Amino acid sequence: MRCNQNTVIEDSIVNLVPYRKEHVLQYNQWMSDPFLQETTESEPLSLDEEYDMQRSWSEDEDKCTFIILDCSLPDTPGTGQHGGRMAGDVNLFFNDPDERATAEIEVMVAEEQSRRKGISKRALQLFMAYAHTQLGVTLFRAKILESNSPSISLFSSLGYIEAKRVAVFKEVYMEYKVDTKEAIALQETAKAMVFKQYDQE
């Protein structure tokens, strides 16, 4: 998404940076893992296809993505100095062009060293605050495989509730509606976030 092409969100646990070409090699390696393909319901791409995907995402106004950096680990070699090891990503999809206040959200922590450290939850908290205050999202929807109990628990812990189940895809749809109380909480999170420009080295 053009609006976050140069945006960095800094935090003590994670940093969120835009998905840039220097991240593609590591990302492509992650997505060759059959486990991640299954849990994210993704198809493997060639490296050239991944570069094409990265370029299209940076321009697509219906998708917003950040790479998650784990602040407790040193920077991933070849990606510059941006405050942590590449750990995964968070994404928004605006699937209905006439309903920009509703977005599908997802998170992936691909690095084994970065799991079970609260990184997914913190990344989602920051991303939701950004999406609500900067993009106007008031309804978040997560589509999760029924077998992915850790992800269901994660979104439940953030206040998402089950909206429906789609048997044919074996998915659970969970939703988070931003009413007054939730809006205040997201705005407070946004106030504490540090925004910087992404400097490619």
From TrEMBL:
N-acetyltransferase domain ranges (all copies): 14-179
One Pfam family linked to the record: Acetyltransf_3
A GO term for molecular function: N-acetyltransferase activity
Keyword Nucleotidyltransferase included in the entry's annotation: no
Keywords for this protein: Acyltransferase, Transferase
InterPro entries according to UniProt: Acyl_CoA_acyltransferase (IPR016181), GNAT_dom (IPR000182), NAT9-like (IPR039135)
Family designation: Belongs to the acetyltransferase family. GNAT subfamily.
Identification of the protein by name: N-acetyltransferase domain-containing protein
